[in-house]
Amino acid sequence: MTLASAQAGIPAAAAASAPAGSRVAGGPGPGPVETESEAEARSRAWAQVEGRSKPKCTTSTGPYQREAEKHLGLRVDGRQSAADCKAIADFQRKHEIEPDQGYAGLYTYRAIMWEQALAEGARIRGCPDTKGLVVCIDKNRQILWVEDAGRVVVKPVPARTGKPGYQTRSGWFKIFKREKKFWSTQFDGPMPFAQFFSGGQALHGSYRPIFEDPGSHGCVNLRYDEAKALWSKLRMNDAVYVWGTRTEG
After folding, report:
1. Class of residue 151 by CB neighbours under 10 A (exposed 0-12, middle 13-18, buried 19+)
2. What residues contact residue 211 under an 8 Å CB cut-off, 6+ apart?
3. pTM confidence score
4. Residues 6+ apart with CB under 8 A from 184
5. pLDDT value at position 75?
6. Burial state string for 79-118 with b = 16 or more CB within 10 A and e = fewer than 16
7. DSSP states of 121-137 as a string?
8. Are 26 and 186 in contact (CB under 8 A)?
9. Alpha helices per DSSP H over 101-195
10. Residue 223 forms beta bridges with which residues?
């Protein structure tokens, strides 16, 4: 497995074969994908890194220190300690956040917000109740879930929305086009399991680590397996509701 595919939760073979979709103009997508040889070299380099000792914990206090302390059941004092750093670094490794040195930055906070959303379960709020199915996209927390008549039918998953200058549009939309293997000629990148809801903006799988910056070119990026699962749940004309503002790193 390559590092990129391991973080996305997909086999290296899937990542290598991703660009084999139809080359259709338009449609924002993620950045370039590694070639197979690049992926193999990256995998070898990562294996060497894994064999070394873990990097020393940082002594710096991150901007989301209190949030991390509270979420991880630590003493909430807003100051980094050796115990804090170890707990935060363990959390970062759990979510494949790099570097895993215990600094409570934005990527760590995004993972915290996702875990908190999962814990809310059926109590999660933000998406208007409707009589039918709606895809709920919360740009504030960078998460996506699906409701049917107000009942959660797909639990929250991490999402990456548009970066500055390419913001994902807010409001009500409907899925109007679906392509399992789509290639963005505009941004020269794959968009697996693409489900378009607003112009060239679509829900689709990504091969990048989901919590990282920069954001997308306007699409809603999901981890590959979660985009695949969502593909089987949705249909043409299903509603999509988007709100909030993405916090940038």
Report:
1. exposed
2. 95, 97, 107, 108, 110, 111, 142, 158, 160
3. 0.78
4. 26, 27, 28, 29, 190, 191
5. 97
6. ebbeebbebbbebbeebbbeebbbbbbbbbbbbbbbebbe
7. GGG--SSPP-SSEEEEE
8. yes
9. 106-120
10. 206
CB proximity list for 177: less than 8 A, separation 6 or greater: 194, 195, 196, 202, 236
pLDDT digit string (tens) for 30-69?
Answer: 444 545 555 556 555 554 544 455 668 999 999 999 999 9
Alpha helices in the chain (DSSP H): 3-8, 12-17, 36-51, 65-71, 82-94, 106-120, 224-233
Two tokens, residue 138: 């919360």
Residues, the chain: 249
Which residue's entry shows tokens 């991150």? 62
pLDDT tens digit string along 175-231?
999 999 998 888 778 999 999 999 999 999 999 999 999 999 999 999 999 999 999
Which amino acid is residue 70, in one-letter code?
K
The two three-digit tokens of residue 239, written as one number: 């509603």
